[in-house]
Design a protein that fits this description.
Strand content: 15-25%
Helix content: 25-40%
Radius of gyration: 20 Å
Number of strands: 9
Largest sheet: 9 strands, mixed
Number of helices: 13
Shape: globular
Distance between the termini: 48 Å
Order of helices and strands: HHHEHHHHHEHHEEEEHHEEHE
Length: about 350
């Protein structure tokens, strides 16, 4: 009730002030989640190292990440975006000192969904992502509205974190993305409001809501059917290559004895039509015929943390829960959010209020 009164007072003022933010910092509560004693990444690393004894492979992982699962009585069907934000936050708080000093008022913990919603409202009130703010009328606290990549980026950017958005899709749909990726070609970049994309999961869920009213959209990719009518096999490899380059950036060296290594890169917010998950690493297996087999390593909010822990500790069934090969990437469009190191300020922080994306053709 106290939180509700504070939010009502802050919202009615029409602006974000120091008092309302201070109240939020003092009132916010830690999100409840099942704590894995040894850490999921540590358990996963053990499984991958055991697996590597029987094949020729290299795996790159993020550091510590807590798994936040969607709860039946709380957020099943709409909360996957918030849960992935919580997973990314758990990593940033554990591994980046500069992020720990700015995130959530230096609380040092991951807030629950209600407080993340209020932090997003503050981001909008501060001028981050005007099209998204307009769609939600700057109000999302206490609702079950679905969010996506741009909301993730807006929230983290409001703290000065350099959250970036990357789009993958067919060339003919290029104009429907957040921006035309002309920046790499010396062409002007279109702003987000160049097309009607607004809020929840960007063009994905918003477009689908009118077609599938009343349905839950947070479902696992491995439970879905292919909707890539072109059947292009080379397309998804573009995304896989990008993820591999992301985790192996900064000249990461892998010796013959180091088949599982930990990168300093943060996990990736991974969006497709209907669901979002968190990419925590990538594996490549070297086949005898000379080809490489890639697997994304993913934490899914729709999976139970206890089941994940059990499968990793017993080394039974963990591959089905965590690994996703190229053949599973059957959606026509994907979107990623990643967070570069450092904290923006001044003019750079002001520029972060406009969300653009880089586009790669699948």
């Amino acid at each position: 009730m106290e939180l509700g009164n504070q939010i009502q007072i802050a919202s009615s003022s029409g602006s974000t002030d120091v008092v309302s933010i201070s109240s939020l910092i003092g009132l916010q509560t830690r999100s409840n989640f099942y704590h894995v004693k040894d850490g999921l990444i540590s358990l996963l690393r053990n499984c991958l190292e055991l697996e590597a004894r029987h094949n020729s492979s290299v795996t790159i992982l993020s550091g510590h990440v807590d798994h936040f699962q969607s709860l039946p009585s709380v957020d099943v069907g709409w909360g996957c975006g918030w849960r992935n934000i919580q997973m990314l936050s758990s990593h940033l708080l554990a591994h980046r000192k500069e992020a720990r000093k700015v995130l959530f008022g230096e609380s040092g913990f991951v807030p629950d969904i209600a407080f993340l919603q209020r932090w997003l409202e503050i981001a909008w009130e501060s001028g981050f992502d005007p099209p998204g703010a307009q769609h939600f009328n700057c109000k999302i606290y206490g609702t079950n509205h679905r969010i996506g990549t741009t909301e993730c980026a807006s929230l983290f950017r409001s703290f000065g974190l350099r959250a970036r958005v990357v789009d993958f899709g067919p060339k003919e749909s290029e104009l429907l993305y957040l921006s035309v990726p002309g920046s790499t070609l010396g062409q002007p970049v279109k702003q987000r409001n160049a097309v009607r994309v607004s809020g929840p999961m960007d063009k994905y869920v918003h477009r689908q809501q009118g077609l599938n009213k009343g349905r839950h959209f947070c479902h696992s990719l491995h439970n879905g059917k292919s909707d890539n009518s072109k059947g292009k096999s080379e397309g998804p490899q573009v995304l896989i290559d990008w993820v591999w380059n992301y985790f192996s950036d900064k000249g990461l060296t892998i010796s013959g004895s180091s088949q599982v290594v930990v990168s300093d890169r943060a996990p990736l917010y991974f969006q497709h039509d209907g669901h979002s998950r968190t990419i925590i690493g990538i594996q490549v297996k070297y086949q005898k015929n000379g080809t490489n087999q890639f697997n994304l390593l993913i934490l899914d909010p729709s999976d139970g943390t206890v089941a994940l822990e059990r499968s990793l500790k017993t080394t039974v069934g963990w591959q089905k829960l965590i690994k996703r090969g190229v053949h599973t990437l059957k959606k026509p469009q994907y979107q990623l959010c990643y967070i570069d190191p450092g904290i923006a300020s001044g003019e750079e922080l002001n520029e972060l209020k406009t969300i653009n994306s880089i586009f790669f053709e699948l």
